[in-house]
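Many introductory courses stop at the sequence. We go one step further.
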Amino acid sequence: MAGAEGFEPSALGFGDRCSDQTELRPYAPTEFYPSPSEPPLASIPVAGELPVLIVGDVHGDFERLFAALKPYPAEQWRTIFLGDLVDFGAFGVGCLRFARDRKNSDVLLGNHEVAMLSAIRDASRVGFYISVGGQQHDLDELRKDEPLQAWMKARPLMLKLEDGTLVQHCGNDDYRMLLGEEKLDPVGTINTNGRLVLESGDAHLLWDVMTGKGAFATQPDRLDRWLELTGSRRVVFGHTPHHEPKPARYHGGKAINYDGGLSRAHYRRAAPLAASVGPLPPLPS
């Protein structure tokens, strides 16, 4: 199935990437928001009438997700989930349903949702899915819930907010593999072609796109090229844990990482809730 400007899902069949499971060291240099206070509410970017709340990787830890969101009523915030709600923890499908049903929310597709969808479609991928933290009971539950499957497949890979913030799951530019020759609307094209890959039954190819090592934290020139290509002012992501008490900021705030290791099942440590869930701060001046 061809996408924009002759894009072919089979073109994504490049070499293996490092999994997010193995990259657990913090990047440097980092900056993080002053503790204990958050940015003043009046200075937090808004989407429409609501300020923006970012939720990093959850990985099935429903209890900690619920606790992290308690200070942020759904009616008062636009909540953006960065993906990877599933795997490792016991309540991945429950976290998906919660995120889907929370008012004023957007949910991005993460690489672990991609692996789950691939295992649903192709039984030969179940072993791989389990090997990267997948839970058999969640897979069985999702298999019975076709509307949830359809909702997952329709999730975007990235969003561009009104203030020029680009929101995506992982902190690298391998999404460009989904662009083909189309450069006029890169965000829209990446989302469209990502959906075509899922519909063609090649969800496993998106795993390669979405599991490269984080580049933006340590490669400012590459970050700048990505921001220029997408017409963005900064990028917000998760995927690779930063091990800081607040979302880690790189290069003067042009890149912000919200994967603080929320899930106890994945990281087996008591990471602060505020490292993964918090308001989107003002753009750097």
